[in-house]
Amino acid sequence: xxxxxxxxxxxxxxxxxxxxxxxxxxxxxxxxxxxxxxxxxxxxxxxxxxxxxxxxxxxxxxxxxxxxxxxxxxxxxxxxxxxxxxxxxxxxxxxxxxxxxxxxxxxxxxxxxxxxxxxxxxxxxxxxxxxxxxxxxxxxxxxxxxxxxxxxxxxxxxxxxxxxxxxxxxxxxxxxxxxxxxxxxxxxxxxxxxxxxxxxxxxxxxxxxxxxxxxxxxxxxxxxxxxxxxxxxxxxxxxxxxxxxxxxxxxxxxxxxxxxxxxxxxxxxxxxxxxxxxxxxxxxxxxxxxxxxxxxxxxxxxxxxxxxxxxxxxxxxxxxxxxxxxx
Length: 327
Fold this sequence. Notes:
Layout: H1 2-22, E1 29-30, E2 37-40, H2 42-61, H3 64-89, E3 92-98, E4 101-102, E5 106-114, E6 122-125, E7 145-153, E8 158-161, E9 165-169, E10 176-182, E11 187-191, E12 203-204, E13 219-225, H4 237-241, E14 247-252, E15 257-262, H5 271-287, E16 291-295, E17 302-304, H6 307-318
Helix pairs in contact: 2-3, 5-6
């Protein structure tokens, strides 16, 4: 137990020293030998032990052929060490990003790389207790560009930032492991969980100041994706004939409803439960093609509809009560 604790402390100190030494990483980034580290793998240590035994046996019995074979294998190992390091130092990190998720889900971190040893690269989170291997690369014939993917937990809402990452490789022979630490400036939003069973409040639509349409006529608001149960008469067939996916027309008329989602109106719930309930209402209203107004303490109300309005509301819910760091 004490040995394990000592190993963990030494590893943390080595990581901290390396991060101070290399500084922040800015994309695009080309890895250099100065920041790449290399050590034998367990198979490499066994290979070194075998070479030692063969050398001692050759010296003891004066067997020149055994010594020649030992030196040949040692040269092979040295060439493998150089090739392993070159495989990582030739890697270029082109781009990185992550999409927003809800609390309790996983953030799918994506890193675009260009490497001669693409199929052997492994990406994992260092110090976060989560490790993940990359899926098979889909590299081009010439550029050999590929995508590294890593799933990382997002237990709480707010601004998620990528932890320290470990990029490593054991190509081409598996005798040595070379690695480097990455500190990428990648962030995304983690929205509140969508939960809660309270019925959504609604307010009759207010058309004051807008165009008054004759009774029975509606105004086209937007197009949304087709869902099971939609009427075929609402499908935008002309758009479908032009090669677009199935889209459904959404209308707003005089009888349209505007939802009023107010944080202060959710009495009897704590802050996180209120945010979860508001998230649930907003997602449901967006799925139904409705318009809504979101009211949070200390911020002006957000009124509107559609994907952009949904993104704005979810972002405000994610950062509610959080202070964003300055530049």
